[in-house]
Each structure stands twice: as structure tokens, then as C-alpha cells.
Amino acid sequence: MLNRWTGEGTSNRIPRFMVGDNINWQSSDLYVYDGSYLRLKNIQLGYTLPAFLTKKAFISSLRIYVAAENLFTFTKYHGFDPEISSGGTSLGIDYGVYPQGKVWTVGANLTF
């Protein structure tokens, strides 16, 4: 097979192929990737209306906000999400688990 390890002095990334052996990937770094990342996990932007505007509606305070979770992830990781991995005895192994979803929240805090 092309680009496989063929002996001493070769630096191909894919391990050697052995006929009749199912451990062709044993002791290999073929699937080891850099999982470093930078993520904007939580952000919230809000505005509290001035009291002179809210008192006319018998509201002591009113705050309007927009919040977001998992907004951006900067990484060179090849999988879905560098933060998600399998659990139990497979901690740190990525079996293609779905990435975390982006969550947008819009709300208002009212105090009467």
C-alpha cells in the first residue's frame, strides 16, 4: 500500500501493513492529534433601562439581555470538538461524539 512504513530510515506516517495480523495500528501515533483550542464559551450583553423610563410603567427595574454559549472555537483539531471525548476507560478518545450545540438566549429581567 502506498505511503506505508517500509523499514528503517523511512518516515511515512502510516504504520507497516502485516498480512493476517489485526494489530496493524498497535503502538502507533497515527491517530494522535493536538487537541488544543481556544473557545468563547459564554458571553452575555445586557442593558438596564434608566429608572425614569421604567417608573412610568410601574416597573422598578428592567434589564434586557442576549446571551450565547459555545459561540466560537478556534482549533486545528480534525475531529468534531476537542472538548468532547468518550468517558469511562476511553477518556480522551474521540469516537465521533457530536459537538456541543450553540445556545442563544434572549431575555428580560423585570422587577415590580
Short description:
Keywords: Receptor. With 112 residues, the protein is mostly beta strands.
Please provide a written account of the structure.
- The chain has 112 residues and is mainly β.
- It has two domains: 1-31, no CATH class; 37-111, no CATH class.
- Helices cover 4% and strands 32% of the residues.
- The chain contains one helix and three strands.
- It starts with 36 loop residues before the first strand and ends with a strand.
- The model has no long low-confidence stretch (mean pLDDT 82).
Detail the topology: elements first, then pairings.
Layout: E1 37-48, H1 51-54, E2 61-75, E3 103-111
Antiparallel strand pairs: 1-2, 2-3
Short key terms for the protein model shown above:
single chain, 112 residues, mainly beta, 2 domains, three-stranded antiparallel sheet, 1 helix, 4% helix, rod-shaped, TonB-dependent receptor, receptor
User: Taking Cα atoms only, what radius of gyration do you get, to the nearest Å?
Assistant: 26 Å
Percent helix: under 10%
Strand content: 25-35%
Secondary structure class reads mainly beta
